[in-house]
Design the sequence.
């Protein structure tokens, strides 16, 4: 075993302005070094910016952790077709609460990042696709976009650079699948949100079949800081392969749930400290490192470094760093059932494994939680999960089975306990208790 | 030491890759989908959403296989219907991979958890891909013990397509067909997750937000294809639902008898009755699609007014009475011989004959009636058209003329006086495919933005009805880009039967083709026209296409037919209108009619007068399937067989021979050729057309204009100046634009209420400003001295002062009621309040 890596002291980057008065206004933002990266970026060439982001090692904050600079470099060097930058602000992963707070507290860092990223990718249109329920956030973003236009940070000939950019804030209509980047593009085009076949990848044929890059809010909001601080500075934070700061959203049974910025690689033990420890001192039972689509951890995993590699080595994923903490009062099968109901409700229906699998898994879990499960149901659960994982069209299906397989892996006894009644006097399957 | 045989190295042609599937090395063209390559090796990977003519979806996940690239196995099984082959790829299907096999079994089990077990009452049972593949690749029992998803049964997607949603496996074949192939998104996926379902605007809960059919007319001419490609029994046909089981049916390959596309079909029948028709697979012609008319319109052949016994007019009562064949043929022969020897007898064949039957009529006219008074054109026609057919169409074949494939590959296509979706739906599908897949530039000279225009992404070049010839002549000035596009190698100009109503159009097109090099394609509406042209059912052409004035050709044919030199009349005969005119003023004494409806002719009154006159003072023999418009005037009515009860061939518009055998044997019904053969014998003449095969053999021995060894050449094209159309008529006068709709009052669509339900609404179309100027709100009345038609008004982007009417739909019977046609002047006024 390697020594658990100690987090560097927390020096807020992304969240540093959040507590300033009226932090969301252009006024506050510019007072706190806002829009100082943009002029620098506009003096560089697009290629230099792509290289800078590559060098910084910035990885996508939307869940998959794809290197942002590499993704940007897929955009064609010519402008035969219009290029688009699309910001994924759908923030649908259960437990995730970082993008909306970021846009509420500091929308201009996102907008500044959008201008820089658009310039680097030769895009003149940028869409911010915001989760439809986040009305307040949409209003605030719109206000910030207006301010930025007025100040000349958006529109024609930005800061006399000759570069033009328009930003459109677009509300979604409340479907988890619309956070999946290709479904998001369909939704943005006005269709039912369902994932698209890849290839072609968005960089070749994305929005309106034109070259498109989709990035998460936090990914793009990190860009101005990289431009200002340089890639070496950025790499001082976090770990070798997962550099930089990260906003962990901690929810559940902790004293002070909220957004905590920390370098990638921070452990739950440290995060719990920041969040004031377990609520009422009731011990930790299980938790998700990155939302419900990432297999759950238990108290054994308190010292797993929460970066892309650390989470994966321990059998889960970093996901969106949505840390959901559950104490000993919570039944795992019940929590798993609730999560599975969510996936059943949100499955887009396109592919068989996810559509039918979540439908079936939900019924089994509901039956088990109602006390009408049998031991065979546990095997069926696992086998159906096996038939969904890696068989579905997009990653929603994979995520849907994570709670079930990891829940049974760590807490099989709890599932078995639910079957006791059936052992004594088996009822007909499906019968209510 | 024994020499080890070197394994033979596979040849890898340019643009190909080598891969291994289930341990077999195979060469495949780049871009081929794994599922197809495997299929070529005989390895069938189960699938639902995959369809070779639809864009890949990867939705059902039934076709998963294991793939290794560059020695590295991919972490997840891959959908073989979406992944293309690559050099060095190693694929393991269910036959060699446990992972692939389990993945497939898993997906199959998941598909079945919500599928009802109603196979015994399902139309698809016995020919069901789900049933078959579940047996081959599924588990024997299900572990699913919970509650299945159900839906109220069934919903009407249209009058002819029903949907049982609980059977649907959501493969999206139907919705993709509608959106991609037909361009009619009349069905769509609605809702999400396990609630996802195929539906229509009407079944959607959030209709306003979730518009299907783009909120437009809710009908498709191709919806039947969705039933055929549905891999389960979710989509069924109102006509066939619960009628039969597939294993009780006999399937006979057939050819569609409706339009000139000549689609390959499969006719399924049982106990002497046709139960359904399906699209056959002919990549050169209809691919795997047919239109709904071709699929659903077949019960006309068993309609109550079908004639099965010969009828003769009773001298005493003047009524038609049943008779023996002997008596009827005797009477017909006597009557026709008398007429011939008086002022002569003419032949109107109609446009729906097989080549063999048309040939029999042509030969009968020449040697039994000794006349060239024969015409297949039971519709508006012109000398200019005749001249064009003789100079540019007859004798062309797929080898030297335009084909479906040529349209698909054309850089540019100009359509004029032709409404592809209404007149030749399969041409429309190809044109749409060309525009969608090959970026073909489509131009349409017509009056308004019809569905044929929008769905082929065409540019409309609007002109007055009747002004098409002038529009063609003006292209170089007004639309030089079109002329430029037509100069590209492979460009095509397509036109249809309406061209005969526009003086100068054939001349203008001939010139345009000569100038640009674009090839001309004449696409008639009826299935038999192209064949009748070849068979010589025209006043100026001999069978084989030589002019009747060509003495050498006549002599050769006389020799082949074994008739005396000089038997064949040397003077061109009369065309349909002239035949009828001659009959009505006593210059013709007899008529043999194979199919003519006065209401299809430019002057229905003249036609009626002619029939009236001959019924009094002449002699009419009518060959009929069902009671026709000629019936009441005929002296002898001879029953003939519908296409299902005979063999033969059509020539489709490409000039491609579409041969078919008899589907329903032994019904006793005789093809026209056989009836004419016997009739000729009564007149002491031998036609040698007793059977379609003998007719075809006899025909094949004649010289063809196409074959270079034959002497004589094609006549040159008559030059007709372009018709000038008044630019503005003003007042209540308007120009009439009109053409037939695919689904209309046509008698071959009788007895098909479900089909009729998807016909386009019967409306008059005018421009918004014309409607305003004339105060047409609600309804409009279009009238001539003969009569008037009142219809609801719909606005369209027509030129001002133009009204469009469907030619023969519902109450809109333009020829019959108005005696007018495309390009004629009519009076347009606000409809009488009704
Ligand atoms: C079901 C599903 C939901 C997703 N939801 C989101 C989301 O709400 N926000 C987000 O940024 N990425 C989401 N993603 C990930 C995106 O597909 C995509 O990877 C990401 O937006 C790329 O941005 P990044 O490279 O900056 O991380 C989702 C993925 C899946 C499969
Ligand atoms: S896994 Fe399949 S059904 Fe689920 S959301 Fe993705 S495409 Fe839709
Ligand atoms: S056939 Fe391949 S996913 Fe449906």
Sequence:
């Amino acid at each position: 075993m390697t020594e658990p890596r100690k987090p560097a002291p927390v020096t807020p980057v992304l969240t540093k302005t959040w507590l300033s008065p009226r932090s969301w206004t252009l006024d506050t933002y510019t007072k706190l070094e806002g829009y100082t990266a943009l002029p620098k970026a506009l003096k560089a060439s697009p290629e230099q910016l792509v290289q800078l982001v590559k060098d910084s090692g910035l990885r996508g904050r939307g869940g998959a952790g794809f290197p942002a600079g590499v993704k940007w470099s897929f955009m064609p060097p010519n402008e035969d077709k219009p290029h688009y930058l699309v910001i994924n602000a759908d923030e649908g992963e259960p437990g995730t609460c970082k993008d909306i707070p970021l846009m509420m507290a500091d929308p201009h860092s996102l907008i500044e990042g959008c201008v820089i990223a658009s310039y680097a990718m030769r895009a003149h249109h940028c869409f911010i696709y915001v989760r439809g329920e986040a009305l307040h956030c949409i209003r605030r973003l719109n206000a910030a976009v207006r301010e930025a236009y007025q100040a000349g940070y958006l529109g024609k000939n930005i800061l006399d650079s000759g570069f033009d950019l328009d930003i459109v804030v677009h509300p979604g209509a409340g479907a988890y699948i619309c956070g999946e980047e290709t479904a998001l593009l369909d939704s943005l085009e006005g269709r039912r949100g369902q994932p698209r076949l890849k290839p072609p990848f968005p960089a070749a044929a994305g929005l309106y079949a034109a070259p498109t890059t989709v990035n998460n809010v936090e990914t793009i909001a990190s860009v101005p800081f990289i431009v200002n601080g340089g890639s070496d500075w950025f790499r001082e934070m976090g770990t070798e392969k997962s550099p930089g700061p990260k906003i962990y959203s901690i929810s559940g049974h902790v004293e002070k749930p909220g957004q905590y910025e920390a370098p990638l690689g921070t452990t739950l033990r440290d995060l719990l400290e920041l969040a004031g420890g377990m609520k009422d001192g009731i011990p930790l039972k299980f938790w998700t490192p990155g939302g419900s689509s990432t297999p759950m951890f238990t108290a054994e995993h308190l010292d797993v470094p929460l970066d892309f590699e650390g989470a994966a080595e321990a059998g889960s994923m970093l996901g969106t760093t949505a840390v959901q903490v559950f104490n000993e009062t919570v039944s795992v099968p019940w929590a798993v059932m609730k999560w599975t109901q969510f996936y059943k409700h949100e499955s887009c229906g396109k592919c068989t494994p996810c559509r039918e699998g979540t439908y079936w898994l939900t019924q089994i879990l509901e039956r088990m939680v109602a006390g009408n499960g049998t031991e065979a149901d546990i095997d069926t659960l696992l086998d159906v999960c096996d038939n969904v994982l890696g068989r579905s069209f997009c990653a929603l299906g994979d995520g849907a089975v994570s709670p079930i397989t990891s829940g049974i892996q760590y807490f099989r006894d709890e599932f078995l306990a639910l079957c006791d009644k059936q052992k004594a006097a088996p009822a007909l399957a499906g019968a209510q208790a | 030491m024994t020499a080890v045989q070197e394994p033979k190295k596979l040849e890898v042609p340019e643009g190909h890759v080598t891969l291994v599937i289930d341990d077999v090395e195979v060469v495949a063209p780049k871009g081929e989908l794994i599922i197809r390559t495997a299929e070529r090796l005989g390895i069938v990977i189960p699938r639902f959403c995959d369809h070779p003519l639809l864009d890949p979806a990867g939705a059902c996940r039934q076709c998963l296989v294991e793939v290794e690239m560059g020695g590295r196995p991919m972490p997840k099984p891959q959908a073989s219907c979406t992944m293309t082959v690559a050099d060095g790829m190693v694929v393991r299907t269910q036959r060699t991979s446990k992972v692939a096999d389990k993945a497939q079994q898993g997906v199959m089990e998941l598909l079945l958890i919500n599928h009802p077990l109603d196979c015994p009452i399902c139309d698809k049972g016995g020919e069901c891909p789900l049933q078959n593949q579940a047996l081959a690749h599924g588990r024997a029992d299900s572990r699913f013990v919970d509650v299945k998803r159900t839906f109220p049964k069934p919903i009407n997607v249209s009058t002819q397509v029903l949907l049982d949603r609980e059977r649907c496996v959501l493969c999206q074949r139907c919705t993709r067909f509608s959106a991609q192939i037909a361009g009619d998104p009349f069905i769509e996926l609605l809702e999400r997750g396990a609630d996802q379902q195929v539906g229509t605007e009407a079944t959607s809960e959030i209709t306003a937000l979730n518009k299907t059919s783009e909120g437009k007319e809710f009908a498709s001419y191709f919806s039947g294809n969705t039933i055929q490609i549905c891999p389960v029994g979710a989509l069924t046909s109102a006509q066939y639902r619960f009628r039969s089981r597939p294993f009780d049916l006999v399937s006979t390959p057939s050819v569609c008898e409706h339009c000139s596309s000549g689609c390959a079909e499969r006719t399924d029948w049982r106990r002497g009755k046709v139960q359904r028709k399906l699209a056959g697979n002919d990549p050169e012609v209809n691919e795997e699609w047919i239109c709904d008319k071709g699929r659903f319109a077949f019960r006309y052949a068993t309609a109550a007014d079908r004639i099965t016994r010969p009828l003769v007019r009773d001298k005493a009562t003047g009524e038609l009475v049943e008779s023996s064949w002997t008596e009827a043929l005797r009477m017909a022969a006597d009557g026709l011989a008398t007429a011939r020897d008086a002022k002569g007898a003419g032949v109107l064949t109609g446009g729906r004959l097989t080549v063999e039957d048309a040939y029999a009529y042509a030969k009968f006219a020449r040697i039994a009636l000794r006349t060239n008074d024969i015409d297949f054109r039971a519709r508006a026609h012109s000398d200019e058209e005749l001249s064009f057919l003789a100079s540019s169409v007859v004798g062309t074949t797929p080898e030297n003329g335009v084909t479906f494939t040529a349209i698909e590959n054309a850089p540019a296509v100009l359509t004029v006086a032709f409404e592809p979706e209404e007149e030749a739906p399969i041409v429309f599908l190809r044109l749409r495919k060309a525009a969608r897949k090959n970026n073909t530039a489509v131009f349409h000279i017509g009056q308004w933005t019809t569905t044929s225009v929008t769905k082929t992404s065409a540019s409309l070049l609007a002109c007055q009805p009747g002004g098409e010839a002038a529009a063609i002549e003006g292209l170089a000035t007004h639309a030089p880009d079109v002329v430029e596009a037509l100069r590209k190698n492979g460009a095509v100009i397509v036109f249809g039967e309406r061209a005969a109503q526009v003086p100068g159009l054939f001349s203008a097109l001939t010139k345009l083709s000569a100038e640009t090099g674009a090839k001309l394609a004449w696409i008639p509406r009826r299935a038999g026209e192209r064949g009748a042209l070849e068979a010589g059912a025209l006043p100026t052409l001999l069978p084989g296409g030589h002019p009747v004035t060509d003495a050498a050709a006549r002599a050769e044919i006389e020799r082949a037919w074994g008739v005396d030199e000089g038997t064949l009349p040397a003077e061109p005969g009369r065309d349909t209108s002239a035949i009828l005119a001659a009959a009505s003023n006593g210059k013709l004494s007899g008529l043999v009619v194979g199919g003519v409806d006065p209401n299809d002719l430019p002057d229905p009154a003249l036609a009626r007068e002619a029939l009236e006159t001959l019924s009094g003072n002449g002699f009419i023999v009518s060959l009929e399937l069902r009671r026709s418009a000629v019936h009441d005037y005929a002296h002898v009515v001879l029953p003939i067989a519908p296409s299902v009860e005979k063999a033969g061939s059509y020539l489709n518009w490409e000039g491609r021979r579409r041969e078919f055998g008899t589907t329903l044997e032994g019904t006793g019904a005789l093809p026209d050729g056989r009836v004419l053969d016997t009739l000729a014998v009564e007149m002491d003449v031998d036609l040698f057309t007793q059977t379609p095969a003998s007719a075809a053999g006899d025909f094949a021995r004649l010289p063809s204009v196409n074959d270079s060894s034959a002497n004589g050449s094609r006549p040159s094209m008559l030059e007709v100046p372009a018709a000038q159309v008044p630019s503005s008529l003003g007042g209540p006068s308007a120009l009439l634009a009109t053409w037939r709709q695919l689904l209309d009052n046509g008698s071959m669509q009788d007895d098909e209420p479900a089909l009729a339900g998807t016909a386009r609404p019967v409306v008059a179309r005018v421009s918004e400003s014309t409607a305003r100027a004339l105060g047409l709100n609600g309804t409009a009345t279009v009238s001539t001295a003969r009569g008037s038609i009142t219809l609801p008004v719909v606005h369209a982007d027509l030129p001002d002062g133009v009204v469009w009417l469907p030619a023969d739909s519902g109450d809109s019977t333009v020829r019959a009621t108005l005696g007018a046609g495309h390009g004629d002047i009519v009076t347009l006024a606000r409809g009488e309040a009704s």
Summary: The longest helix of chain A spans residues 395-417. The two ends of chain A are 47 Å apart (CA to CA). The domain at 26-231 of chain A is CATH 3.40.50.11540 (Rossmann fold). Residues 1-5 of chain A have pLDDT under 50 and may be disordered.
